[in-house]
Design goal:
It is a single chain. The chain is globular. Strands 6-7-8-3-9-10 form a six-stranded mixed sheet, with helices on both faces. It contains eleven helices and ten strands. With about 290 residues, it is of the alpha/beta class. Strand 7, helix 8 and strand 8 form a beta-alpha-beta unit. The structure holds adenosine-5'-diphosphate. The site of adenosine-5'-diphosphate has 12 residues, from strand 2 and helix 2.
């Protein structure tokens, strides 16, 4: 069935239309709205967790999680503080093991590649699976340009290719127009939202296939948050995206699928609309309707 000319096609509805929405809209109402489908598919990879456990010494923080993240989709991870969301995503790019006493068991695959196989180069895993953190963390002594170029220089990229890649990455992070005339200025001189987009540009520069975002907007104001959410929508056309968030409206706005975790376990994962309107598990319903958390 084709949409009549008088009815805007939801697939082409500008994302920016959200900015005029009242902030009180419930996550369930947001989740019911039609969402844009990605129009371009590139090399994004499927991430598959199977029987994933993560520990901090004796603390069993992530318990036997089976979960898939599909290419060109945004998956939100929600759940109360301390339920293991960050730990779970840090296992995907092997950052968890950097913490003394921390270990993980089970498997994480990027398509068919086992991320924990002994032959795997951890640095290349972290390049393929980029990460954006809660607090924007530009390299404090570096210019805007050098923040984006830093990872590329480590891979031997130089000269015109380096400049082009820095520009492309800043474009892709939606920051180029705002910084193109001051690339030599310090990265930490930017606003919080711009710094977070700079960190996203830095992540994109090394050509990841999966992007993990751990509460990427929790330190930002509502306008900067909206800008990042729009960017997530654009980026999913090229990447597999996992977003940890405590903000249920945000999950409803940006995510195609939502996973609910509780006490280290995955309670359920489903389309975002289903999770926020008719979840299968009563604990999910209690959480998304604000009865605890
Ligand atoms: P969430 O992201 O859902 O808030 P976390 O993954 O941060 O949850 O935490 C899960 C559990 O792991 C909690 O019990 C927390 O105290 C513990 N934990 C998290 N980070 C560390 C750490 N660096 N060292 C020791 N324990 C940690």
């Amino acid at each position: 069935m084709s949409a009549s000319p008088a009815t805007p096609d939801p697939a082409t509805r500008p994302v920016r239309a959200r900015s005029s929405e009242p902030t009180t809209t419930s996550a369930a109402a947001i989740a019911r709205r039609p969402r844009r489908m990605p129009s371009v598919t590139t090399t994004a990879r499927r991430v598959t967790l199977a029987g994933l456990n993560a520990y901090y010494s004796d603390n069993h923080a992530v318990k036997g999680i089976d979960l898939e993240f599909a290419p060109n989709e945004v998956t939100a991870i929600i759940g109360p503080s301390g339920c293991g969301k960050s730990t779970m995503v840090r296992c995907i790019n092997r950052m968890h093991e950097e913490i003394p006493g921390a270990r993980a068991t089970g498997s994480v695959r990027l398509d068919e590649q086992d991320v924990y196989a002994p032959s795997v180069d951890v640095v290349s895993v972290r390049r393929t699976v980029g990460m954006v953190f809660q607090k924007p963390n530009p390299f404090p002594t570096m210019s805007i340009h050098d923040n984006v170029a830093a990872g590329l220089r480590l891979t031997g990229t130089r000269g015109a290719k380096l400049r082009d890649r820095v520009e492309q990455s800043l474009h892709a992070a939606g920051l180029w127009e705002e910084v193109k005339d001051r690339l030599d200025a310090p990265g930490i001189g930017l606003s919080g939202g711009q710094q977070q987009r700079l960190c996203i540009a830095r992540t994109l520069a090394v050509e990841p296939e999966v992007i993990l975002m751990d509460e990427p907007c929790s330190a930002l104001d509502p306008i900067a948050t909206l800008r990042i959410e729009e960017l997530i929508e654009e980026l999913k056309q090229r990447y597999t995206i996992v977003v940890v968030t405590h903000n249920m409206q945000q999950a409803a706005r940006v995510a195609d699928r939502t996973a609910f975790m509780l006490a280290g376990e995955l309670v359920e994962v489903d389309s975002t609309e289903k999770i926020f309107t008719t979840p299968s598990d009563s604990r999910t319903e209690e959480y998304v309707t604000g009865k605890f958390g």
